[in-house]
Specification:
The protein is α+β, with helices and mostly antiparallel strands. The chain has 3 helices and 6 strands. Strands 1, 2, 3, 4, 5 and 6 form a 6-stranded antiparallel sheet that branches. It binds coenzyme A.
């Protein structure tokens, strides 16, 4: 008689293996964080709004360097949840600037998870494009300072 439980476990493991990827080498690591049980939704996975908040924070790191002052998030252009995020995942956020305008900076943010029992192996769980605007003391858009030499 076949062992259904071990065959199911093998199938699940190979499905998970199929999503493993290498970390990006052309983007900057801007945040690492581990979600906790308080960040869960009703399914027991991590709440999407929590992930969005972390992406907003991580995404602001490179624009802050460029804006040298107050900024606001003006748009989430795209947000894709590719895989669920689980309690205890070690999440790594990688970012790159994709567009610099007169007052705005757009970044691409990719989020990779190391499952708690599969450290050193990475799944891309989320990808987003977010735009930030440099603002003055009155909250109005202000021109970005010249890029550092
Ligand atoms: C950010 C804010 C100051 C921009 O003011 P605004 O009058 O809309 O500004 P503008 O139309 O002059 O656009 C400013 C820049 O934002 C960009 N922008 C505006 N709307 C955008 C959108 N939907 N998507 C992408 N970029 C956008 C413009 O292209 C422009 O960029 P550029 O100067 O580099 O060409 C204003 O919209 C605001 O205060 N929004 C609320 C911000 C906030 O509270 N964020 C937190 C959310 S909880």
């Amino acid at each position: 008689m076949s062992d259904n439980s071990s065959s199911t476990a093998r199938t699940t493991a190979s499905a998970a293996e199929a999503h493993l990827v290498a970390l990006p080498t052309d983007k900057e690591l801007v945040l690492k964080v581990i979600p906790l049980p308080a960040d869960c939704n009703a399914n027991g996975d991590i709440f999407g709004g929590w992930v969005m908040a972390q992406v907003d924070l991580a995404g602001s790191v490179l624009p802050a360097r460029r804006a040298q002052g107050r900024m606001a998030t003006v748009a989430v252009n795209e947000f894709v949840f590719k895989q669920p995020v689980r309690v205890g995942d070690l999440l790594s956020f990688y970012s790159e600037i994709t567009h610099v305008g007169r007052t705005s900076i757009t970044v691409n943010v990719e989020v990779y998870a190391e499952r708690i029992r599969n450290q050193g192996r990475y799944l891309k769980v989320t990808e987003a494009s977010v735009t930030y605007v440099a603002i003055d003391d009155a909250g109005r858009p202000r021109p970005l300072p010249p890029a550092p030499a």
